[in-house]
Design brief:
It holds the Pfam family SBP_bac_3. This is Transporter substrate-binding domain-containing protein. Keywords: Signal. By secondary structure, this protein is α/β, with parallel strands linked by helices. The chain has eleven helices and 13 strands. Strands 7, 8, 9, 10, 11 and 12 form a six-stranded mixed beta sheet that branches. Helix 6 links the parallel strand 8 and strand 9. Helix 9 crosses helix 11. The radius of gyration is 21 Å and the shape is globular.
Length: about 280
């Protein structure tokens, strides 16, 4: 018996609705699974420096990203299992289920929000800074037009550098590879999170010939905790934890203890907001 186009379309829509509902149910089960096993697996980026690095003495991940990850676990009442991720593969680690959450220097933008979920309250704000040789003649973003600029693969800075400033962007597996390429003369500048560039140039004598001359950041954006799409229970639980950090001033205290400079004004703004609302 022939099936009408209307009936076929209705069945297809019904099947799709069931699939979406099943996916949502599975996704919302993530928080229950975390609590049942007593562990949350969090992907963290540790490219060196105060925002994340490997302590050679203990072989433990230390710094801003790892500390926030452990504090999320504490807020959820479970143990933290930290997984070191790379810029190019961090999203795949989350989507594939290798990690439950990401705290990996991955700022909020529309492209990422289309494919991932996130706790909406930010815990930092970061933009891109350019490291370049002193005397390179680079003083503003427009000076990069027609010049080769090194970035990490998957960096959100690649698009504005190319489309807005006309740079020839060259991607590398990690920020370490990108910075090595800069030192090797493969590019005129390397653009990475300002939280990586400024401490590197300020504290490392090996970088004494380099500086970050551009006063503004490219593409400043909020840092958030990332989840898979549709994980509403997980998002709500994590967002409450982040709001509590702001309310108590824990983020400001942690920033100061770790020596993060310059201090992020967003933290003071959100501390005042949530403290007032408590």
């Amino acid at each position: 018996m022939a099936i009408s186009k209307t009936t076929g379309a209705a069945r297809m829509a019904f099947t799709l609705a069931l699939a979406l509902a099943a996916g949502a149910a599975h996704a919302d089960a993530t928080l229950d699974k975390i609590r049942q096993r007593g562990t949350v697996t969090i992907g963290v980026l540790a490219n060196g420096g105060v925002f994340g690095s490997l302590d050679p003495a203990t072989q433990q991940l230390v710094g801003w990203n790892p500390e926030l990850a452990r504090e999320v676990a504490k807020g959820l009442g479970v143990k933290a299992e930290l997984v070191q991720v790379q810029t190019a593969t961090r999203t795949q680690f989350l989507i594939s289920g290798k990690v439950d959450l990401l705290i990996a220097s991955m700022e909020l933008n529309p492209e990422r929000a289309d494919i991932l979920g996130y706790a909406p309250t930010p815990f930092f704000r970061v933009g891109g800074a350019a490291a370049t040789l002193k005397g390179s003649g680079i003083n503003k973003w427009e000076d990069l037009r027609g010049k080769t600029v090194c970035v990490s693969q998957g960096s959100s800075y690649a698009k504005p550098l190319s489309s807005d400033y006309g740079a020839a962007v060259k991607g590398f597996k990690s920020s370490s590879d990108s910075l090595l390429a800069l030192r090797g003369g493969q590019c005129v500048a390397a653009v990475h999170d300002s939280t990586l560039i400024h401490p590197l140039l300020r504290n490392n004598p090996e970088w004494a010939d380099y500086h970050a001359p551009i006063a503004t950041d490219v593409l400043p954006a909020n840092s958030v905790v990332w989840t898979r799409k549709g994980e509403t229970d997980t998002i709500a639980a994590v967002d409450k934890i982040v709001q509590d950090w702001h309310r108590s001033g824990w983020l400001i205290a942690t920033e100061k203890r770790l020596g993060i400079e310059p201090a992020q004004p967003l933290l003071q703004e959100l501390h005042a907001k949530y403290k007032q609302g408590s």
